[in-house]
Amino acid sequence: MIRMTVLGILCWVHAAAAGTHSLQYFAVVTSDETKIPNYVAVNMVDDVQYSSYDSTMDKPALLLDWMNKTMGREFWERRTWHILTGHDIMKWSLRDTIQHFNHTGVHTYQNTGGCELDDDGNRRSYSHYAYDGKDFISLDVETMTWIAAVPQAVFYKHKREADTVRQQNALDFYRRECFQSLEWCIQYGKETLQRKVRPAVTLIQRKARESAGTDVICHVTGFYPREVEVNWIRDGEALLEEGVWSGEVLPNGDRTYQLRKTLTVSPEDQKKHSYSCQVDHASLDEKMDVKWVPEAALNMGFVAAGVLAALGLIIAVIIGALIWKKRASGARSPDYTPAQTKERSDASSNSTNGDRCDSIAEKLMTQTE
């Protein structure tokens, strides 16, 4: 069984370059008729999700409050129409494709599309479809023709191009409506889309797993927008690529991002060179340099002594607890020896002390003689 999630759809997201805004949508439909949603759609402006919808919902959910203001209602009503219509188109397309291939079982049909607007005014729009995770067909917006990625998609190309009404709707959306909506979002959503949040940088040291060296992790987090440049620098000038492993830019739960970049340093290089993590981001007036100060190795003698001292303390506590428990149990025993009276106790004490003193005196006299 194939289970598609919003996270799976978002794997299609390609990050817009700096100075570029985008309006994008992602959708997937499956032929799996179970209780899970067989259709999921996500809409995003830049890298911020503004709506979600699946086949278990009556209507799409709007996730950004500022879209309710000014012209937002008109925009949202239009997007709702596109989302619901897209649901029907995707179902029909998947059904026809399965029949054309004479396939059985569970299959998927995916679609990603939208438009991008650069700061210099350049515009691009696109629409791509995939069947079972492989390129199937795409729309050339400039010529308004469909391009089959595989021979089996030619039938779909002819079918779409013959539908003049749907072709005109696609032409209106990808050449005009999408860009109008994007420009509106940029204007009214600038507090969200154009905000700048400084990154926090932390260096984490650990022993390398596959060598005698040290891994130093530069953890950069809490920044927005998404675009960031993180590099390891040696001796303040040499940009390092060898021995450096970079993770992906990942989202945090507060609409900021994080990135980890790991440098492996040999014991010899650690003695001869200095290293720093350099971060460049739109929120910074200048690049941020965080120098790595190697942590001193722990003295194993002190570590062992500390472990033994802690162990001794634990043993002492356990023995003390056992003695206390034994004494408390003896005090409560029904066959205990009756306590002596004060007079008897004093007499016994004096007698004992006297005998002890006589014995000590006798020893001293013997030593003197």
Overview of this protein structure:
With 369 residues, the protein is α+β, with helices and mostly antiparallel strands. It folds into 2 domains: 6-193, 2-Layer Sandwich (Murine Class I Major Histocompatibility Complex, H2-DB, Chain A, domain 1); 200-291, Sandwich (Immunoglobulin-like), CATH 2.60.40. 37% of the residues lie in helices and 30% in strands. The protein is built from 8 helices and 17 strands. It has helices at 6-10, 72-101, 154-162, 164-188, 190-193, 267-272, 300-331, 342-368; strands spanning 20-30, 39-45, 48-54, 61-62, 108-118, 123-131, 134-140, 145-148, 200-207, 214-223, 228-234, 238-240, 244-246, 250-251, 257-265, 275-281, 288-291. The strands form 3 sheets. It has an 8-stranded antiparallel β-sheet with strand order 4-3-2-1-5-6-7-8. The longest helix has 32 residues, at 300-331. The chain is elongated, with a radius of gyration of 38 Å. The termini are far apart. The relative contact order is 0.08. Mean pLDDT is 80; it is low at 1-16, 297-308, 331-354 and 356-369.
